[in-house]
Design goal:
Elements lengths: L5 H12 L3 H25 L3 H20 L7 E6 L2 H9 L8 E4 L4 E4 L1 H4 L9 H7 L4 E3 L3 H18 L4 E4 L2 E5 L1 H7 L3 H16 L3 E6 L2 H8 L7 E3 L4 H9 L11 H11 L4 H6 L1 H7 L2 H12 L14 E11 L2 H21 L2 E12 L4 E12 L2 H15 L4 E13 L13 H7 L11 E3 L10 E5 L31 H14 L13 E4 L1 H4 L28 E2 L3 E2 L11 H23 L6 H8 L10 H7 L20 H11 L1
Parallel strand pairs: 2-4, 7-8
Antiparallel strand pairs: 1-6, 1-7, 2-3, 5-6, 9-12, 9-15, 10-11, 10-12, 11-14, 13-14, 16-17
The structure holds 2'-deoxycytidine-5'-triphosphate and magnesium ion (MG).
2'-deoxycytidine-5'-triphosphate binds next to strand 1, helix 4 and strand 3.
């Protein structure tokens, strides 16, 4: 967006979307963020001097711990293709070269060529707004098979540098190049140059590369000299600290718009260095997990170990369309989805037990409804039986998106695999009610397939069955099963609110603003066929369990499923993912706030302090901010050398201007 008249772009977007549902949702979202900020401000204002000195100690201890974990022995490389879809299209049709190009439709642009970006055209923007900004904009329909083909070519190259490379989307990957550097006695910079040349030779496309001691920084680095460039940060603590100290927090994967606003507006934090300066506030106001994440960002720490591969947990597809309440049309779409899901499952030799129906209403409300069958299924007919029942229960309604996802997967090759489900029959029978242990509604749907899929459990966003840690055999009499995977058992509030946020953050897919007829399938199965993990949110703990529900431990399972709430977001949707992570931060915050409003701030964390200190009078936030005593770096660190193109100071000066 450098050199773009941002004000003009904003004005055009505002004028063209005003009054639309998208606009209304944006406003609702803004109001929600404002509310969260106010809440946080109020919490902040209650902090006493004693609180702050306690949390200062907590923060210092934490920073020491984090510092001790610093690993400078690994060399990570992050690679990101330049204007990927647009570049592929141009390669296939050279007449597009040099033209302002948008890949997508009047409803949605997936990416734009650099020529189009000069006009403010960008990904996730409705095409008709793109046309307004850039009248000569040329449109090309996306062709995912093409992108997958080119992506596979790039992966062949990655393979030769790191067989365990982590692909986070079709066009991005992390490579641990430590061994290559040692074995061939070459530098990270040499590997970067060589790899970019190899990718170009293999594909005819360009990419940008960042090299750093950890993945978090490597990703930031790959953006510095984009397009067709590279930036190398040496494995040197001082160089890392220099780099992150002036780095705007929004550059960090996992810090999205909402988190940025909260940190900036409540605590005055805009750069990573300021995270350390306000460490006491971060520890006082955020969960331990979030605070750890923020402090590690301030220290320039990120993932250095290759995360263990996880088995695919679910497989699904979804379809966006112009909103309709025509039930026959909706059932037709459902049948298509069932067929799609069957194909994907059968291609991978998988069957599943839990079927989740995702619906996005015309008002952008997202609902998910899940059902667990007794036996494993993967035929279109079986899928459709359950999906139809789930959909019927929601009718009448007007929808703009439908999705089906199968989880609790079973590999047909693996006959020994058995379900670890356990009945909670006793509970439901004895309670003699329709309430689960959360006090929420649970429906029962009787199987009508005539097969041995038996009675099933149904979970809705109004009440997910509570997971049981024990194991046991299912019985013929049972009416309900406990899910043995907790990733699809989000807390009600998380799911509902998250969905709102996620939908709002991705408003242009088929929202019909442009009146264009689209019927886009999100290629979750194809695009996300990597079974490796995304980096978003995993900077602290790569071993985070999917069910932890802690924001800092959020993972993208299979590269696209949120480990906290099970929501799916393809890796290409980085902004939306960041907002998603923000949402979990915000949710945990809200939960903390709800609890904390009934008791002193972070009482459990204050407990040890309260033994030795007595509270002093409350002071105003402004005073606290001025008097924070977290040590800032004693001397102004100099930029490290090693960047191939622009000097790092110039880069950050540029970033600052954009803040
Ligand atoms: N994509 C998408 N929807 C988005 C963002 C991206 O479908 N909201 C797709 C199109 C992009 C591809 O993912 O070509 C890769 O995304 P990037 O964010 O890496 O964007 P580009 O590769 O297009 O451009 P850059 O040169 O900035 O990396
Ligand atoms: Mg890219």
């Amino acid at each position: 967006m450098e050199g773009v008249d941002k004000e003009k772009v904003q004005k055009v977007i505002y004028e063209m979307s005003k009054g639309s549902k998208y606009f209304e949702n944006e406003q609702r979202k803004e109001a929600l963020t404002k509310q969260k900020i106010e809440h946080l401000r109020a919490q902040c204002a209650t902090l006493t001097d004693n609180d702050l000195s306690h949390f200062q100690k907590v923060a210092e201890r934490k920073m020491l711990e984090l510092e001790a974990s610093r690993d400078l022995s690994k060399i990570w490389l992050h690679t990101d293709m330049d204007a990927f879809y647009a570049a592929v299209e141009t390669l296939e049709d050279p007449s597009l070269k040099g033209k302002p190009l948008a890949v997508g439709s009047m409803s949605m642009i997936t990416t734009a060529s650099y020529e189009a970006r000069k006009f403010g055209v960008r990904a996730a923007m409705p095409g008709f707004i793109g046309c307004k900004l850039c009248p000569g904009l040329v449109f090309v329909r996306p062709n995912f098979e093409r992108y997958t083909h080119y992506s596979e070519l790039t992966r062949k190259v990655f393979q030769s540098y790191d067989p365990s490379f982590i692909a986070t989307s079709l066009d991005e990957a992390y490579l641990n190049i430590t061994s290559v550097c040692i074995e061939r006695s070459i530098t990270g910079e040499e590997v970067a140059t060589e790899l970019r040349a190899a990718i170009h030779q293999e594909t005819g496309l360009t990419c940008s590369v960042g090299v750093a001691p950890n993945r978090m920084i490597a990703k930031v680095c790959s953006d510095i000299n984009k397009p067709n460039g590279q930036f190398i940060l040496p494995n040197d603590r001082e160089a890392v600290l220099t780099f992150v100290y002036t780095l705007p927090i929004r550059k960090i994967g996992g810090i999205g718009k909402v988190t940025e606003q909260k940190l900036r507006q409540v605590l005055g934090i805009s750069t990573c260095q300021e995270m350390l300066q306000k460490a006491a506030f971060l520890c006082a106001l955020f969960s331990e997990c979030s605070a750890d994440f923020f402090l590690s960002v301030g220290l320039g720490l990120g993932g250095t170990e290759t995360p263990k591969q996880r088995q695919r947990k679910s497989i699904g597809c979804e379809r966006t369309f112009i909103a309709t309440d025509d039930s026959s049309l909706l059932f037709e779409k459902l049948a298509n989805l069932a067929e799609n899901l069957m194909d994907d499952l059968q291609k991978e030799g998988l069957k599943g037990k839990t079927l989740t129906l995702k619906l996005k209403t015309a008002d952008f409300e997202v609902r998910t409804r899940a059902v667990t069958t007794r036996g494993y299924i993967n035929s279109k007919e079986d899928i459709l039986i359950y999906a139809t029942k789930l959909l019927k229960a929601e009718m009448p309604l007007s929808l703009r998106l439908m999705g089906l996802r199968m989880s609790q997967l079973h590999d047909e090759k693996d006959d020994s695999s058995t379900s670890t489900q356990k009945t909670i029959d006793i509970f439901f029978r004895s309670s003699n009610s329709n309430l689960n242990v959360n006090g929420t509604n649970v429906q029962s749907i009787t199987n009508i397939s005539g097969q041995d899929n038996g009675p099933i459990s149904v979970t809705t966003e109004d009440g997910y069955l509570v997971p049981d840690s024990g194991t046991g055999a299912s019985t013929d009499q049972q009416d309900f099963f406990v899910h043995d995977e907790s990733i699809f058992i989000p807390e009600q509030r998380n799911l509902v609110n998250y969905n709102n946020e996620a939908v709002l953050s991705n408003p242009v897919i088929g929202d019909g603003l442009g009146g264009a007829k689209i019927d886009d399938v999100t290629h979750t199965a194809k695009v996300m066929n990597s079974e490796k993990l995304d980096d978003v949110g995993q900077f602290i703990s790569h071993e985070a369990t999917a069910s932890s529900g802690k924001p800092g431990q959020q993972l993208w399972i299979d590269g696209y499923i949120c480990s906290i709430c099970g929501f799916e977001l393809p890796p290409g949707f980085e902004e939306e993912r960041q907002e998603h992570s923000d949402f979990h931060f915000a949710e945990s915050l809200q939960q903390e706030e709800t609890v904390d409003s009934k008791r002193p701030i972070c009482s459990e964390r204050l407990a040890e302090k309260q033994c030795s200190t007595t509270p002093s009078p409350k002071k105003k936030l402004a005073e606290k901010q001025c008097s924070t005593t977290t040590p800032s770096p004693k001397k102004k660190l100099k930029s490290s050398k090693g960047g191939k193109h622009i000097p790092i100071d110039a880069f950050f000066a540029k970033c600052k201007k954009n803040l």
